[in-house]
Specification:
The complex is a heterodimer of chains A (491) and B (165).
Chain A: E1 12-15, H1 19-25, E2 31-34, H2 43-46, H3 58-67, E3 71-74, H4 85-91, E4 94-97, E5 103-104, E6 117-119, H5 120-127, E7 144-148, H6 152-162, H7 165-168, H8 175-183, E8 188-192, H9 204-212, E9 216-218, H10 228-232, H11 237-251, H12 256-264, E10 267-272, E11 275-282, E12 289-300, E13 307-318, E14 321-324, E15 328-329, E16 348-349, E17 352-353, E18 359-361, H13 364-367, H14 373-393, H15 405-414, H16 422-438, H17 449-466, H18 472-490
Parallel strand pairs in A: 1-2, 1-4, 2-3, 4-18, 6-14, 7-8, 7-14, 8-10, 9-10
Antiparallel strand pairs in A: 5-15, 11-12, 12-13, 16-17
Helix pairs in contact in A: 1-3, 1-14, 6-9, 9-11, 17-18
Chain B: H1 3-25, E1 50-55, E2 61-66, H2 72-78, E3 99-101, H3 104-109, H4 115-121, E4 131-133, E5 146-149, H5 154-162
Parallel strand pairs in B: 1-5
Antiparallel strand pairs in B: 1-2, 3-4
The chains are: A alpha/beta (491), B alpha+beta (165).
The structure holds flavin-adenine dinucleotide (FAD), NADP nicotinamide-adenine-dinucleotide phosphate and FE2/S2 (inorganic) cluster.
Protein name (chain B): Ferredoxin 1
Cofactor (chain B): [2Fe-2S] cluster
Family (chain B): Belongs to the adrenodoxin/putidaredoxin family.
């Protein structure tokens, strides 16, 4: 399927080391990956919920790709700031942008910036250890939380807010988040959508997890499902099965055993439909949120394309915590790169950035911020295929040699930027795992960039003084172990 | 060097490393819930083996033999079959990239599908009524000679719709 061509080592680089970066790299002969953070894997590390460790198995394949001599990882390099796209284009025959979607859609309603209102992107980043979100310290000192949006991210957030902390403490959730959740007063989570039950964006596996979540019970409203049964038969299988499970949850009388389980549950979750945010309500001194005003909608049309139209009626819901989970959003990286600000993607044709030979994109930046890892994988393979085709056809001229990482490394050194190699990441990785082991978790993440870099400097310094010593390897192992203990005390 | 050969070799190396690694890493603390890929169950008697015919995305037929008890994903890995992106979650029912399509009679003989497998299948590309997830199907002697088709990827579907390839 991959056409043949014979040119000596065209130079390709990728910006971003999430699934898109790694799946694109997997199909290119020789490739350098530039990543802003000292640590790789993007949303697999900082997005995927801590109680979904199996999803993170993709990291094993990424690691094999990165360890291969054909692939070099340069972490701690902020493209657009430390090095420009133009400089990359001069150094490489092809540049693939895979930097994901690091912004979020805004509700665009008054009160959005009040205390107690968070974007799901920040909330997720907080419990998953994203360095830029560690100051968030969300206030969980209220009974009811409202989540806006009914996608899988909304369900991740709901689950983290409601799951027994005995379950969470065995995951790689950060220690500060775990402690906050242990203290959390949140007992009720409302997951609010602007359209109806047949338009929810979440998938069935995640909904079923909510249904089965220990110590919680659903509180769906039967009225919401009027007329839904009649529409079921025409739905495609995935939508049909999901709708059936929601109906079962809302309408059927549970088995005796389930009734008993539910009656003992201390926390509640519910879906609310046909409601759009119009204003976040503040307390009298305007210092924090106390609720949300919602417009009551009706649906125009049917199926996936149905539109929410306000009826004019409004409804106020009291809540002390409001999390807006209405989608992520890609941001432009450099004025020289075309950007469709309406769709918030880089406009492209099969991954080829419009009007810019040699520039490509993959992942959420290419498609918009939807799709699971498998979707991202497929669209990244497509982009890699475009790169290969263009080099073969001559659309991208690879006859003249380019310096690749050599010239970029020079630029970075001049600018005082010290890239983190993949083997350096593996040092951070093993430190995190041994710190986790100490507290019965699979990993205890380092929470700041400084901490990550500091650990590497320490290791380097000690290894440097030891070089030349015949006991080097034994000492290396001992020192690594000692350093790990030291860092545990340091934090 | 021809890219295609290099890519295939790369992928093969990757898969080979992969099967070795997963066998070695299953006790790794943070990979909880990971199912180990069966290795080393090869029986000396080849008549104990189960023959499986895979049809890859190019329509080529690839015939391999596996041991009873292995899953179809194990087989793909042990035999170094190069199906792009197959088995991303390593058999933990979290990705749907091990999607395979069967003929109706074979599908019926594969046994009951759990809700959890159905949930994950619902996310698969090109879902059919006779689709299954390869990591959930264990070989038995009675499956000898089955045909399992690897579905086209989205790009293939799009391209053949456009008529552009
Ligand atoms: C909260 C959440 C949970 C999810 N859970 C699941 C799940 O359970 N299962 C599933 O299949 N899918 C899940 N997904 C979807 C999945 O994460 C995405 O499909 C996938 O991560 C998109 O990959 P990407 O590489 O395009 O983006 P990202 O994963 O975001 O990777 C982008 C990378 O680029 C880097 N970067 C950004 N800017 C720069 C720059 N200027 N210079 C250099 N590098 C830069 C970032 O640091 C990051 O590492 C989830 C998504 C979210 C948001
Ligand atoms: N476990 C997993 O597999 C997993 C976990 C997390 C994320 N993911 C994937 O990652 C992707 C992103 O997830 P996501 O939840 O961020 O996005 P999403 O699936 O697109 O859901 C966004 C939700 O926000 C709503 N919304 C959008 N704009 C709105 C507005 N202005 N006002 C009110 N509501 C609005 C949408 O409703 P409308 O439909 O009406 O627009 C929808 O309910 C998805 O593909 C998801 O499947 C997967
Ligand atoms: S390998 Fe992921 S679901 Fe089968």
């Amino acid at each position: 399927r991959w056409t043949t061509f014979s040119i000596c080592s065209p130079k390709v680089c990728i910006v971003g080391s999430g699934p898109a970066g790694f799946y694109t790299a997997q199909h290119l002969i020789k490739v350098d990956i530039y990543e802003r953070l000292p640590v790789p894997f993007g949303l697999v590390r900082f997005g995927v919920a801590p109680d979904h460790p199996e999803v993170k198995n993709v990291i094993n394949t990424f690691t094999l790709t990165a360890r291969n001599s054909r692939c070099s990882f340069y972490g701690n390099v902020n493209v657009g700031k430390d090095v420009s796209i133009e400089e990359l284009q001069q150094a490489y025959h092809a540049v693939v942008l895979s930097y994901g979607a690091e912004g979020n859609r805004r509700m665009g309603v008054p009160g959005e910036d009040l205390a107690g209102v968070y974007s799901a992107k920040d909330f997720v980043g907080w419990y998953n250890g994203l360095p830029s979100c560690q100051e968030l310290s969300p206030d969980l000192n209220c009974e009811t939380a409202v989540i806006l949006g009914q996608g899988n991210v909304a369900l991740d957030v709901a689950r983290i807010l409601l799951a027994p902390t005995d379950i969470l403490k065995k995951t790689d959730i950060t220690q500060p988040a775990l402690e906050a959740l242990v203290q959390s007063q949140v007992r009720r989570v409302l997951i609010v959508g602007r359209r109806g039950p047949m338009q929810v964006a979440c998938t069935i596996k995640e909904f079923r997890e909510m249904v089965n979540l220990p110590d919680t019970r659903p509180e769906m409203m039967a009225d919401d499902f009027e007329g839904v049964k009649e529409a079921l038969k025409d739905l495609p299988r995935p939508r049909k099965r999901l709708t059936e499970l929601m109906m079962k949850t809302a309408l059927e009388i549970p088995s005796e055993k389930e009734q008993e389980r539910q009656s003992k549950a201390s926390r509640v979750w519910a879906f609310r439909f046909l409601r759009s945010p119009i204003e976040i309500l503040a307390n009298p001194d305007n210092s924090r949120t106390v609720g949300i005003r919602l417009a009551v909608n009706r649906l125009e049309g049917s199926g996936d394309g149905a539109r929410a139209v306000p009826t004019g009626e409004v409804e106020d819901v009291t809540c002390g915590l409001l999390i807006s989970s209405i989608g992520y959003k890609s941001l432009p990286i450099d004025p020289s790169v075309p950007f469709d600000s309406h769709k918030a993607i880089v406009p492209n044709n099969m991954g080829r950035v419009q009007h810019t030979a040699g520039l490509y994109c993959s992942g959420w930046l290419k498609t918009g911020p939807t799709g699971v890892i498998a979707t991202t994988m497929n669209n990244s393979f497509d982009t890699a295929r475009s790169v290969v085709e263009d080099m073969e056809s001559g659309t991208v001229d690879v006859s003249a040699a380019r310096p690749g990482s050599q010239s970029i490394s020079g630029l970075l050194e001049e600018r005082g930027v010290k890239p983190v190699t993949f083997s350096n990441w593996e040092k951070i990785d093993s430190l995190e795992m041994s710190r986790g082991e100490a507290s019965g978790k699979p990993r205890e993440k380092l929470l700041t960039v400084e901490e990550m870099l500091q650990h590497l400097t320490w290791t380097e310094l000690i290894l440097y003084t030891l070089k030349g010593n015949p006991m080097f390897f034994i000492m290396d192992a001992i020192i690594n172990k000692l350093l790990q203990c030291k860092s545990i005390q340091m934090v | 060097m021809a890219l295609v050969t290099a890519l295939r070799r790369l992928a093969l190396v990757r898969l080979r490393e992969c099967s070795r690694r997963t066998a070695a890493v299953t006790s790794g603390a943070w990979l909880t819930g990971q199912r180990s890929f069966t290795t080393g169950t090869q029986s000396l008697r080849s008549d104990n083996k189960v023959t499986v015919n895979f049809i890859n995305r190019d329509g080529e037929k690839i015939t391999v033999k596996g041991s009873p008890g292995d899953s179809l994903l194990d087989l793909v890995i042990n035999e170094d079959l190069d199906f792009d992106g197959f088995g991303a979650c390593e058999g933990t029912l979290a990705c749907s990239t091990c999607h395979l399509i069967f003929d109706e009679d074979v599908y019926k003989s594969l046994g009951r599908v759990t809700d959890e497998e159905m949930d994950m299948l619902d996310l698969a590309y090109g879902l059919t009524d006779t689709s299954r997830l390869g990591c959930q199907i264990c070989l038995t002697k009675s499956l000898d000679g089955i045909v399992a088709r690897v579905p086209e990827s989205v790009a293939d579907i799009r391209q053949s719709k456009d008529g552009s390839s």
